[in-house]
Amino acid sequence: MFVKRASLLASLCLAAGVAVAQPAPVSARAAGAPASSARPVDSIVAVVNDSVITRKELDTRIEEAKHQLTLAKRPIPDADLLQRQVLEQMIVTQVQLQRAKEVGIVVKDADVEQALQRIAADNRLSVAQYKARLAQAGVPWDAFRKEVREQIIMARLRDREVDSQVQVSDSEINSYLAAQRGATAAPTETEYRLSEILVKVPDGASADQVSAAQKKAAEALDKAKAGGDFAALAKQYSDASDAANGGDMGFRIPERIPDLYLNQIQKLQPGTVVPQVLRSNNGFHVIKLVESRKQGGDQGMTVPQIHARHILIPVGDGVSEEAARKKLLDLKTKIEAGQLDFAVAARENSKDGSASQGGDLGWISPGETVPAFERAMSELKDGQISDPVRSEYGYHLIQALGHRESQVSGDQERNLAMQELRGRKADQQYRDWLQQLRDSAYVDYRLSNAQQ
Questions:
Q1: Over the range 275-293, which residues count as b (16 or more CB within 10 Å of their CB) and which as e?
Q2: Which member of 38, 197, 330, 386 has the lowest number of beta carbons within 10 Å of its beta carbon?
Q3: Cα–Cα–Cα angle for 194, 244, 175, nearest 5°?
């Protein structure tokens, strides 16, 4: 989540797409009361629901934004525009923090400490060194800790309110894969669209309960065979989670269909029902093949892959952050000096399941490792060894052994497509959700008053 120092630089992109609201007109006080010749030590520049933003807080964030823009060699907007942008981002942050409090999101001090350690490690520094670096830049440590805490809270809020709600349908995955392959790709794989009626049998059911469930499923099957509306029958008889949708399971490739179903539907014509009730551990099933189609070509998605190996040293149980980093740095020095083989070092030191293979993880596709590991790995050239990388599992020493473009297919291809689509949908839904949250907030601009 934190690759480099969390800052307001990204915030200047207008709160991830949230439009910057214009300050309200000058209040009656500003219009009718004489302006003071001396600026107050501090004042309120905005009221956000039941919270306030002070002039001191705003000025601090503005100076921080200028510093970050200077480091990035980007032009600094004129004073009024920068002030409005920074204030708007502070307002958006406030409404998110207020929402997080409403829903009970709490971040423990230990979570903040772990995040600070990751940030320092990503910058190839210890926490003490990073703290000193911030001090040199004029950034108070307490203020930085507060910002990191807020970032964690907002990330958890987004996951709760948006990301966890995102759904990607099979048809969306199919369309995405078709677009990736191109319209000229020769269709080869058959996909089946199924609907089901499930009559569940509870664990430990009596013979009478099993018999009643079977009878209920047989009744549904008879009505389906007689031409009854299968969707209506599913709503009436099915205990499955998709009953409200008429039992529609969507399109599935054969690898994603239970063998119990697959062996039967491959004998059917689309629009027909499996002629007998099927029995599984869950209960009794009535299955209809709605339609089938050819999907995809000979070629799957092409993705970049990295052949990597690593050494993992977990933190805890007597192993401190500094001890883990120092241990891996010592190993790296010896490996690069030719005094120690990486595979041997992994077998002797790594606490990962790959240790017996010399730390070899094989060819890794995007999304198959945790973000911190993947970021560090992707920056390595063939043969290069990383500095210690912090993840939720501990510290890793990573070596890239090779890079290639590889075609993936089947479930792996669909999983990658789902990840991509989920990311796109989550980003869009987050922008919409954030705009709605911002629009619903009560905001009283007092910026002009504060400048008097």
A1: eebbeeeebbbbbbbbebe
A2: 38
A3: 45
